[in-house]
């Protein structure tokens, strides 16, 4: 196949530019010589003959390709209890190449009931291009607990009158209680009244023991300067312990902040909570959980128990308060001897209402919510009372500890106080280096403000936790200085923004300012993970829902308590580990929001924080599906899978290398769209877009599958009846403009130069390969657009190729010989604009190659050459007889050349005609 790109020219080449610099001031010189050797090479540079004051911003599109000398054969509000307005999707079709098999396959049997037959998606098969990391296997010992604090020496009991002396056992409602100084007091049974604030002074211990009937404690708050102990690392409590916190939210809570212990546990001493170990705490499905079934096939073995609650995470592309398909169900039984390829079979007490996908491309998660140790806000005074429940404001939950925390196997429910700084379910507060602090195998659900906050704290561990139904950012690095922490194998699902959600299709959004209803302006883009400092280990996590899955905002300086630290700038630190993370069902509102979003700026405007969500390192083995795209820049992406997305990946800053990308634009599964959403929010199903704004992008060893619209207009590379995608079924369709590659060439301000290259690219059952996005007038960026196809795998020529602009006014500039191939798939037109108005990009002159082939006076088939505008950048091949520059107003009186990118061994001859007798000063 000899066809190549859209309105571009492709050239076989043997060398690539290196870069030299020259500067000349000419009053009277006829020729400028830059020595090198002959032969067409790629060259870019800048020239200046007049002030660019009248410069226009424009856009463009069209491609040509150059055939190689020896062509080869081408290779082709917050939380809600249940879904409210989400329509039940149609039955999910099973792709013929998916190993999960038919959803109507015969059911098998265990002692607990039937389960769907295989094939199944095992842990080893859950991704194609990358290997998702797994937590280390845990051997769940059946041995007796040891070193339990409630059985230690010198203990006294809460319900023993001798413990309290003359004051007697605390048994009065709302009574404030102080644990006796220097004592070790054990609570061994339920306290029958709601107490006031319980204080544990320094040197004292309050220990909650174990009772087969469970222990319930109701308080208004706790102030812990000593030690609050529930179990230990060697004494994981299997019997239930529940601490319930009571209190209504004051109307002026944000401006008149309540005491630290108000409806919370404030710790300046030691907190050590250890519930029973459950493993795994979450798993992916091994088989699609069809609507109407009450059985889940999990990839991992689990020791979950009957009566516990689980969340089955949505597989729909949109997840929000008013539309979601997450479901909370109760476990009826667990079968631990499942068929091969399955870790466990979980039976539910009632069927699921929605289908939850598990196929060879991606599988959604199931998380365990119940734990034996539970801290919660009271149901009577914690639920939302805000008249607009979608705003996530004016809610009350419970903050948690702030100092030495060892938390594992704990359930945190109805926690967090919205917009109250520091009142989060878990808060590591200004601890400095503290490697002994951790939050492990716990759950946080129905949180009104965040999940786990790391604030001025380093070397901590947050691992194997499940978070669901959360207002604001969930796993959260607060000031941008937090480093060397590990966030691993955590699940974040159903995350809600606070305040108005930034949305739209442009590259900018509204700017949001700190206020009493938005303490952190960035919460308008709340996401599962908020990473203000990449010098941490982010491994094996999963995110669903939210404005994005993982947000990496740009902080030019530290904020909060660390503001003014001029020696530390979060945006300049290097990354430690970003590996094996997955995202889905996110990025719905803004067209440029990404599953992994590297962008947005958080900064101070005066004494108030301000957040700009719009555009303004290396991560490995990551995956997103049913999400809009990945927005990135200035990084390496080593192993990335993208499934059922609008755009696989998007980069709007310089310096991006993608290696081992797998973009499956459509898998054949329903996207779970809200009714009517496809009419006004087209989800393209495209691969990657090149930009024209001075960026450098490289893509290698990558595959595009089922991408590009299927149309007879775009069958030059593949004419299969099943190639790409179409719009016949809107539940899983792609946009009529979808393509593998696209070009943004809208501006007269930018000249692309050499900024994009590819090698070893594979197209698997794809439709349209190239497109341009703006269709109006010609521009500088459109005329200069070019692309280095190192091995010809994109062009189909299978030789080193340059893909370049084929615009009408640029075709003779790039068409340097008769081996050029025209590519019809991206008919390039452009859009010139100045403050939004369509304007012609008026040339101030023309640049053309010297020689008979390019001379309009000798060859009537060619034009005057490449239009040169107020933008001084010019890019093209060098060699032949050189370039000829002619200006409409005559030869320049002063000429400056700079940023010349020419191989030192090459020759570029630049000619400018001057009147006879002109003299020059150099």
From TrEMBL:
It holds the Pfam family CEMIP_beta-hel. It comes from the Eukaryota. Keywords: Glycoprotein, Signal. Residues 1-22 form the signal peptide. InterPro entries: CEMIP_beta-hel_dom (IPR055401), G8_domain (IPR019316), G8_domain-comF-like (IPR052334). Residues 94-106 have a biased composition (Polar residues). Residues 162-287 form the G8 domain. Residues 63-106 are annotated as: Disordered. Belongs to the comF family. This is G8 domain-containing protein. It comes from Phaeodactylum tricornutum (strain CCAP 1055/1).
């Amino acid at each position: 196949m000899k066809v190549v790109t859209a309105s571009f020219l492709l050239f076989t080449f043997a060398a690539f530019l290196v870069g030299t610099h020259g500067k000349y001031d000419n009053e009277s010189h006829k020729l400028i010589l830059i020595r090198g050797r002959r032969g067409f090479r790629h060259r870019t540079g800048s020239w200046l003959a007049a002030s660019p004051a009248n410069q226009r911003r424009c856009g463009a599109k069209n491609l040509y390709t150059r055939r190689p000398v020896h062509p080869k054969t081408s290779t082709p509000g917050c939380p809600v209890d249940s879904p409210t307005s989400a329509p039940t999707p149609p039955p999910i079709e099973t792709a013929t190449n998916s190993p999960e098999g038919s959803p109507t396959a015969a059911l098998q049997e265990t002692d607990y009931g039937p389960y769907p037959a295989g094939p199944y998606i095992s842990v080893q098969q859950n991704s194609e291009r990358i290997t998702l990391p797994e937590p280390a296997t845990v051997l769940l010992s059946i041995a007796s607990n040891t070193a339990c604090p409630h059985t230690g020496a010198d203990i006294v009991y809460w319900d023993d009158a001798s413990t309290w002396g003359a004051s007697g056992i605390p048994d009065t409602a709302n009574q404030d209680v102080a644990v006796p100084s220097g004592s070790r007091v054990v609570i061994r049974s339920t306290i029958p009244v709601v107490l006031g604030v319980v204080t544990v002074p320094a040197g004292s211990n309050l220990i909650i023991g174990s009772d087969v009937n469970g222990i319930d404690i109701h308080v208004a708050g706790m102030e812990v300067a000593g030690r609050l102990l529930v179990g230990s690392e060697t004494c994981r409590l299997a019997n239930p312990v529940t601490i319930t916190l009571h209190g209504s939210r004051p109307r002026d809570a944000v401006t008149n902040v309540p005491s630290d212990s108000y409806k919370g546990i404030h710790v300046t001493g030691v907190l050590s909570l250890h519930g029973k170990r459950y493993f795994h705490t979450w798993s992916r499905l091994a088989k699609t959980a069809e609507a109407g079934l009450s059985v889940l096939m999990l990839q991992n073995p689990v020791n979950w128990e009957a009566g516990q609650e689980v969340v089955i995470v949505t597989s729909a592309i949109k997840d929000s308060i008013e539309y979601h398909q997450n479901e909370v169900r109760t476990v009826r039984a667990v079968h631990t001897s499942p068929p091969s390829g399955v870790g466990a079979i979980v039976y539910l007490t009632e069927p699921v209402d929605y289908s939850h996908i598990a196929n060879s491309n991606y599988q959604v998660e199931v998380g365990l919510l119940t734990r034996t140790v539970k801290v919660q806000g009271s149901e009577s005074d914690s639920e939302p009372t805000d008249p607009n429940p979608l705003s996530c404001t004016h809610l009350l939950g419970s903050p948690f500890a702030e100092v030495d925390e060892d938390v594992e196997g704990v359930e945190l429910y109805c926690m967090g106080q919205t917009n109250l700084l520091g009142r989060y379910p878990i808060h590591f507060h200004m601890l400095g280096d503290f490697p002994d602090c951790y939050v492990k195998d716990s759950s946080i659900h129905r949180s009104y403000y965040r999940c786990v906050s790391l604030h001025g704290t380093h070397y901590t561990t947050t691992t194997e936790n499940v978070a669901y139904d959360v207002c604001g950012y969930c796993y959260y690095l607060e000031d941008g200085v937090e480093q060397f922490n590990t966030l691993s194998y955590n699940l974040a699902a159903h995350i809600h923004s606070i305040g108005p959600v930034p949305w739209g299709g442009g590259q900018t959004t509204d700017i949001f300012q700190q206020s009493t209803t938005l303490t952190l302006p960035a919460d308008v883009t709340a996401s599962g993970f908020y990473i203000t400092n990449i010098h941490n280990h982010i491994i094996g996590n999963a995110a669903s829902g939210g404005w994005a899955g993982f947000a990496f905002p740009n902080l030019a300086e530290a904020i909060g308590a660390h503001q003014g630290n001029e020696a530390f700038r979060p945006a300049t630190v290097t990354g430690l580990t970003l590996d094996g993370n997955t995202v889905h069902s996110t990025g719905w509102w803004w067209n440029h929001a990404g599953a992994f979003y590297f962008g947005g700026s958080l900064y101070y405007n005066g004494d108030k924080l301000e957040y700009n969500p719009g555009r303004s390192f290396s991560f490995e083995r990551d995956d997103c599906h049913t999400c809009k795209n990945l927005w990135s820049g200035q990084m390496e992406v080593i192993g990335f899978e993208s499934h059922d997305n609008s755009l696989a990946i998007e980069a709007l800053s310089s310096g991006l290398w993608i290696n081992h990308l797998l973009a499956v634009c459509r898998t054949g599964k329903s996207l779970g769209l809200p009714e009517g959403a496809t009419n006004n929010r087209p989800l393209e199903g495209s691969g990657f877009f090149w930009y024209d704004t001075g960026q450098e992008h490289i893509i290698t060893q990558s595959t595009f599958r089922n991408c590009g619209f299927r149309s007879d207009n775009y069958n030059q590379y593949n004419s299969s009846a099943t190639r790409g995608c179409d719009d016949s079924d809107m539940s899983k369709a792609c946009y009529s403009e979808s393509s593998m590659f696209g070009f943004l060439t809208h501006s007269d301000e930018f000249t692309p130069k050499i900024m994009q290259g590819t090698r070893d690219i594979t197209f698997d059952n794809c439709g349209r390969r190239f497109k341009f996005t703006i269709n109006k007038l010609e521009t500088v960026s459109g005329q200069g657009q070019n692309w280095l196809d190192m091995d010809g795998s994109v062009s189909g020529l299978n030789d080193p190729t340059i893909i370049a602009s084929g615009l009408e006014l640029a075709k003779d500039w790039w068409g340097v010989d008769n081996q050029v191939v025209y590519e019809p798939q991206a008919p390039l037109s452009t859009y010139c604009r100045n403050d939004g108005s369509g304007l012609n990009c008026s040339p101030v002159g023309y640049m053309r190659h010297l020689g008979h082939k390019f001379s309009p006076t000798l060859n009537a088939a060619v034009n005057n050459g490449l239009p040169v505008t107020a933008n001084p950048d010019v890019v093209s091949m060098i060699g032949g007889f050189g370039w000829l520059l002619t200006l409409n107003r005559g030869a320049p009186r002063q000429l400056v050349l700079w940023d010349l990118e020419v191989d030192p061994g090459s020759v570029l001859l630049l000619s400018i005609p001057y009147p006879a007798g002109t003299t020059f000063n150099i």
